[in-house]
């Protein structure tokens, strides 16, 4: 997973020689902060960017050969086919799939959206276009961005994982995202439930913030329960989409969304993933683009650790701390000067582990709880909702009573009673 295969990126000279035929684009290249203004040839960009059957790589070749999108649309079939093939030529010259009135409405809707504060339409010809995507063979020609344009050029790492994450996975995603953001890396994820949401929240608490790459139009939020989170990201980070405004969530859009996540970053960290998961698609795409792939290991009994273990077997770097990721980015901070030891906050390790770390005053003894063995089906059927809640919070790794209380919001006496019942049933066992 560490190989860096060569690609066929648009070289700097080709990029700079794209024909900027409009005053708006010339202004955008001279002043990147103005690149959010809708370009004068936006209709031509929209027609080509969303033309059926026109692949991004083919459009990129046509733009490199003829200049701006209006110049491409003005070419003959033979000229277009000579550069990108007959299928691409047919796609360029075909009328828009919607009626003329519908297409005009789409253009006006896009202009109105881009005119709102914080909204941007960024094309391949804009200086604000992410340089990282230009190393891809098929970068999207058009991006809809809601939020900070400067984050498109930031050094970034993706944190992805299961939508049905365990409490431990969510804690890990948030902790790693906060640490990596504080170190100066923007954190990229997909705004999905579980690991993605935890990564965004952790990064928003850090210094470098976060980018959410979505599989819908930039004017929609999916899943709907992430409206508040999406608002936070748009305020302090950025939301990025390559889909036209109004595009609903479709299953076929998300693998392409994953490709964009992989293209924007220097590495991808998988926190939890099943064997068949979109996170593994992101990891594979990242590897094909020459990005680094990292994975956090887990219990051999945990289904959501199997995807991570598979990636590690295939060459992904096993990471245990954020510093393991920062080391690959060449961003390990200098060791701070020795100072008097401050009291350590509890982090969920057992009392024995904390004493082994060299604390001068060991913390009070506590008890960890862990699943003892596989649960027979009849035991699951007989479990109460509160017992299932505790088991879900426990996961497959030991946890202290304090951690379980924070994960379940149960009172101490109630939680202790449930743990005792589960232990008597043979569902869990206490550890010293």
Average per-residue pLDDT, rounded, comes to 81
β-sheet strand percentage: 5-15%
- Give a short account of the largest sheet: 9 strands, mixed
**Radius of gyration, in angstroms, nearest whole number:** 25 Å
Question: Number of domains in the coordinates?
Answer: 3
Q: What do we call the CATH topology of the largest domain?
A: Rossmann fold
Count of separate DSSP helical elements? 20
Number of strands: 12
Question: Which class best fits the helix and strand makeup?
Answer: alpha/beta
Spatial order of the strands forming the largest sheet: 1-2-6-5-4-3-7-8-9
Low-confidence stretches: 2-35, 340-380
Based on the coordinates given, report the CATH architecture of the largest domain.
3-Layer(aba) Sandwich
Distance between the termini: 39 Å
What is the highest CATH level, the class of the largest domain? Alpha Beta
Shape: elongated
* Helix content class: 40-55%
Question: Can you describe this structure?
Answer:
This is DNA protecting protein DprA. Residues 121-329 form the Smf/DprA SLOG domain. It comes from Caballeronia arationis. Pfam families: DNA_processg_A (PF02481), WHD_DprA (PF17782). One of its GO terms (biological process) is DNA-mediated transformation. This protein is α/β, with parallel strands linked by helices and 432 residues long. The protein has 3 domains: 12-112, no CATH class; 154-328, Rossmann fold (3-Layer(aba) Sandwich), CATH 3.40.50; 368-431, Arc Repressor Mutant, subunit A. 43% of the residues lie in helices and 11% in strands. The chain contains 20 helices and 12 strands. The chain has helices at residues 12-16, 23-30, 42-49, 56-66, 69-73, 77-84, 86-93, 100-114, 167-182, 195-204, 227-236, 253-264, 278-288, 306-313, 322-328, 351-356, 377-382, 385-394, 401-408, 412-424; strands at residues 119-123, 142-147, 156-160, 186-189, 210-213, 238-241, 267-270, 292-295, 317-318, 368-371, 399-400, 428-431. The strands form 2 sheets. It has a 9-stranded mixed β-sheet, sandwiched between helices. It has a 3-stranded antiparallel β-sheet with strand order 11-10-12. Helix 6 crosses helix 7 (86-93), helix 9 runs parallel beside helix 10 and helix 12 packs across helix 13. The chain is elongated and about 80 Å long. The protein starts with 11 loop residues before the first helix and ends with a strand.
């Amino acid at each position: 997973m560490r190989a860096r295969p060569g690609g066929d990126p648009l070289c700097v000279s080709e990029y700079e020689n794209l024909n900027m035929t409009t005053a708006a684009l010339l202004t955008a290249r001279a002043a990147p902060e103005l690149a959010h203004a809708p370009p004068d040839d936006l209709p031509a960009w929209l027609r080509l960017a969303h033309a059926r059957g026109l692949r991004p790589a083919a459009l990129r070749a046509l733009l490199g050969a003829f200049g701006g999108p209006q110049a491409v649309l003005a070419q003959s079939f033979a000229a277009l086919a000579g550069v990108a093939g007959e299928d691409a030529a047919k796609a360029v010259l075909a009328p828009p799939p919607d009626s003329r009135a519908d297409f005009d409405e789409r253009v006006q809707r896009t202009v109105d959206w881009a005119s709102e504060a914080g909204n941007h339409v960024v094309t391949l010809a804009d200086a604000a276009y992410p340089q990282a995507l230009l190393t891809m063979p098929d970068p999207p020609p058009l991006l809809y961005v809601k939020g900070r344009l400067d984050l498109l050029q930031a050094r970034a790492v993706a944190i992805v994982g299961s939508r049905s994450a365990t409490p431990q996975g969510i804690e890990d995603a948030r902790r790693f995202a906060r640490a990596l953001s504080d170190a100066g890396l923007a954190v990229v994820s997909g705004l999905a439930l579980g690991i993605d949401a935890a990564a965004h929240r952790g990064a928003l608490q850090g210094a470098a913030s976060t980018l959410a790459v979505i599989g819908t139009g930039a004017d929609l939020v999916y899943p709907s329960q992430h409206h508040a989170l999406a608002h936070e990201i748009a305020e302090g980070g950025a939301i990025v989409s390559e889909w036209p405004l109004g595009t609903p969530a479709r299953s076929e859009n998300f693998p392409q969304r994953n490709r964009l996540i992989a293209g924007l970053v220097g590495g991808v960290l998988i926190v939890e993933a099943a064997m068949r998961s979109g996170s593994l698609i992101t990891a594979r795409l990242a590897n094909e683009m020459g990005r680094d792939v990292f994975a956090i290991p887990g219990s051999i009994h945990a289904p959501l650790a199997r995807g991570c273990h598979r990636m590690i077997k295939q060459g992904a770097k096993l990471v245990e701390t954020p510093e393991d990721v920062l080391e690959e980015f060449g961003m390990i901070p200098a060791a701070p000067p020795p100072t008097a030891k401050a009291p350590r906050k509890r982090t969920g390790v057992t009392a024995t582990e904390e004493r082994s770390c060299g604390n001068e005053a060991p913390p009070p003894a506590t008890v960890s709880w862990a699943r003892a063995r596989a649960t027979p089906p009849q035991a699951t059927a007989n479990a109460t909702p509160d017992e299932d809640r505790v088991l879900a919070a426990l996961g497959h790794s030991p946890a202290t009573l304090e951690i379980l209380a924070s994960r379940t919001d149960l009172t101490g006496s109630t939680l202790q009673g449930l743990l005792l019942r589960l232990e008597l049933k043979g569902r869990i066992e206490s550890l010293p």
